[in-house]
Design goal:
With about 250 residues, the chain is α+β, with helices and mostly antiparallel strands. Helix content is about 15%, strand content about 55%.
């Protein structure tokens, strides 16, 4: 998905480049921008909605905040899989981030918020859901379990981005890269109908099934073990990227 967003960003650059640089000036009368972050819809799930606001502090600096609702796309079950997930409910999530932007005065052709920028950022990202899981062998249900899963991430880092201002009012904000130090708290509590030995390999298979919804998350957890209560916590690197569409006023 990251590669798709990168390709989309490059296409946007090509499509709007001529339009942007045909402008002579950009008005500094509009200090506020409201925007829609389309990235969570593509990466997390189509029901996610994150909105943002940017305010110019002075001629070359601004601050911005994003806040919104997240919801994971439904689990997919392959025919013949031993572990299958059904009846997802209580699904939800929350996204909050804030950043301070320094626009490059000597590099950018137009006044901010148009052009290249950098700045520190911080954010919280959380997802949670309950579901019923069935363990099936040769079309026979051997066991069922209630699964309570959650994923929490707190980040602080530095980002580099480029924002286009079109026709004075419309913006396309590309967060190109944003490395961070990130704290991860991942939980997958399992309540089986029939008792299962804590050392049973089925536990790892279930965790793998849950983590398969996010290859990036699975990569982080690959060499780590869940505790007996189904939780793993650790610090690692993170990365922010995204595309946001806005309107100035």
């Amino acid at each position: 998905m990251k590669q798709i967003l990168l390709a989309f960003s490059i296409i946007l650059l090509l499509l709007i480049g001529n339009s942007v640089y045909s402008q002579d000036t950009i008005s500094t009368n509009y200090k506020n921008t409201i925007r829609w972050n389309i990235t969570p819809m593509a990466v997390v799930g189509p029901k996610s909605l994150v909105l943002g606001y940017e305010r110019m502090v002075n001629e070359w600096q601004s601050f911005s905040v994003n806040i919104g609702y997240l919801e994971m796309a439904p689990f997919t079950n392959e025919e013949g899989e031993v572990i299958q997930i059904f009846d997802e409910n209580n699904k939800g999530g929350f996204d909050f981030s804030a950043d301070y932007r320094f626009y490059f005065k000597n590099r950018n052709k137009f006044a901010a918020p148009d052009g290249l920028y950098w700045g520190p950022y911080t954010g919280y990202y959380g997802l949670w859901s309950d579901a019923e899981m069935k363990i099936i062998d040769k079309n026979v249900i051997k066991n069922t379990a209630n699964v309570n899963s959650s994923f929490h991430m707190i980040s602080a880092g530095v980002q580099l981005g480029y924002q286009f201002v079109l026709k004075e009012r419309f913006t396309i904000d590309l967060i190109l890269m944003g490395p961070s130090l990130t704290y991860y708290n991942i939980n997958a509590e399992l309540d089986f109908d029939l008792a299962v030995d804590p050392n049973d390999p089925i536990y790892k298979a279930i965790y793998d099934k849950i983590l398969a919804t996010s290859p990036k998350l699975a990569a982080f957890v690959e060499n780590r073990e869940f505790s007996t209560n189904g939780r793993v916590k650790f610090f690692s690197y993170g990365f922010r990227y995204g595309i946001q569409l806005g309107y100035r006023f």
